[in-house]
Amino acid sequence: MAHETNLSIGVFIDGGYYAKINEGFADAREVNLKGLLDYICQRISKEEGIERNRLYVTECHYYRGRYKANDAKSRNILYDERKFEDMLIENDAIFHYKHLRTDPKGGIIEKGIDTWYALDTYEMTLYREFDFVVLISGDADHEMLARKLKALKTHVILLTWDPANTASTSRFLREEVCSHFDMNRAISENSSLLKQLTTY
Prior knowledge:
By secondary structure, this protein is an alpha/beta fold. Helix content is 44%, strand content 25%.
């Protein structure tokens, strides 16, 4: 571990993946980020045998493509985006956005976010010396990111959550990380977790 007394946790959220978690709930609930960050500390404490008061989420970063203001306004989502950002701010999460682009056929292009996510995660882990890094993502391409983070002697945790049971996590990514927090499984074993980890 990088620190002898208090241990630091860096949390890196793939915004597209986070949105799919919220979309997967059958009702109007959504992820309670504060509850999720608390859960991460509690679970690391339990599984690694570390006192809870020694564990701190020192940084939480969120990456997502976003519409330009006029596009968001015309799509009637400007208020929802601002409300979501308020939630990130309240939880001291740092958000990183790139503008979405449209292709000639009118489709939406989100380019460069995954690369930015991976580069930032590696660079920040290198300089901040996180003891644990939690990747909230389902992107199979992050297998090499996990390998590089482990080379820094960092404990890498993959947190996945698929409320709608519509996707599967890459086996290669699961095998590359040090720990996998499968929230579907955790909630099936302890249904009270759903109340802690979601809000309406």
